[in-house]
Write the structure tokens for this entry.
Amino acid sequence: MMGAAARRPGPRVEAAAETADRGPRGPLVRPVRPEEWEEAGRATRAGFVALVGEDDRDYLDLVADVAGRCDRTTVLVAVADDGRILGSVTVELTGKVNPERELEPGEAHLRMLGVAPEAQGRGVGRALVEAAAALARSAGKSRLTLGTRPEMVAARRLYDRVGFRAGPPAEWAPGHGYLTYELDLEAGPAGI
């Protein structure tokens, strides 16, 4: 029975439906609704500011613009019992936030995972990542990729715990590097 206790079921999310599930200890995770775009953007932006500061205003504006990416991606939100948006994550299943690179066959891409500072450290980020993986798997994807900044240490620890494997470093612009990660959705990720 010890193995069953160690594995915590994650949230399940259906891509096109307004249905959601709550893990036994996690927040409700579901697709964002149009009336929540602004609140989701504020929570996600605040999470990024808490981690990397306010220097990159263009990127922070992009992170906050949930409405600007909902037409081509899926944005999931974590919702508190009182209805507040705690954070969000963007999942690219077919469309991309920035179409600089096409998705490869079988690939889904996770972007802009952000959790409001007051909700950090409470499993919200993990619930969002687990829901993104479940969504990608339900869409028939075999792997979930992402890029993150080297200074986002807490996020990198989360990705490691969930079962992502580090890939080669990359650059989105000369002198601006990031780390790549990939989760094999067919292998049954750790903890999901």
